Input
Amino acid sequence: MSISVLRTADAWWVLSPTGAAKIATEATTTGQLLADGLAIAAATANSETVPVDTLALISPVTGPCRVVAQMTNYASHVTDTGGDPSTVPMTFFRKSSGSISGPHDDVIRPSHVRLLDYEVEIGLVIGREMPVGTTVTDDNLADYVAGLVVTNDVSARDVQLPQTQFYEAKSYPTFTPVGPALVLLDAEELKRFTDLRLTLRVNGALRQDMTAADMIYSPVRALQSLSRFQRLDAGDLLLTGTPVGTALSAPPRPVQVIASLLPPATRWKLFFGGQARNPKYLKDGDVVEATIATDDCAIDLGTQRTVVRDAR
Output
């Protein structure tokens, strides 16, 4: 049965039907907490609770940690940009853990960023050491994935695209809201991963709505690939891609062909000129709500609500 872990600045909590019960632990990091399974279990039986809405929740994933992300991992997202999902390779990039923020913190848009985008994603939280060479299978996935979190891979598209690399564009402070809960799952619950529905709304308008069944490369395949070269430890975070519906939109294929004949400076000027007219990019005051759950709510990662603010 899933256990939802919450975090405040001074404590860890377990969510219950009557509120939140404090976990009696000395853990200060997510990795340390995951190693203190007895304290988590004891808190689930604690009848002394406080109302959740009285807690100032922060990210249940602590930094510093490794934040690794999968690129173009939903078929709908690839198709929307004119690609063929069957030809998309498995690709990873890194984000700074300094970009992690809480589920209700403001997302701060740097003054030089004009095209601020959103990407709701399921985050896998690693539960134990995974040295390079670790063998990950469907049967032992739950040994390495402790639980799941709601994440938003916020992206500065006008920084990302000309640089042809993602690290800066996705690593500004507050560009990875995480939470509200770290939902610990057992092996049977993890088998329902593809039933999880990702939704994202901006100012109440639905932008993204797709289940993880649309995913090209599953968590098992992603971890199999990563374990060939990347060590992971308890508390590290893997973002698993986003479905169709982001603000970024690719030009029609004929336009792309014509644009490819233009000098790079001219091509980018035309592209960003068109994107600047796209009203879907985030602006000051926009409210972003991201939810991930199965349709029957048997597994519910919760809803994060963040507000975009321009840097002052």
User: Anything to note?
Assistant: DSSP finds nine helices and 18 strands in the chain. The chain has two domains: 1-56, 64-249+283-310.
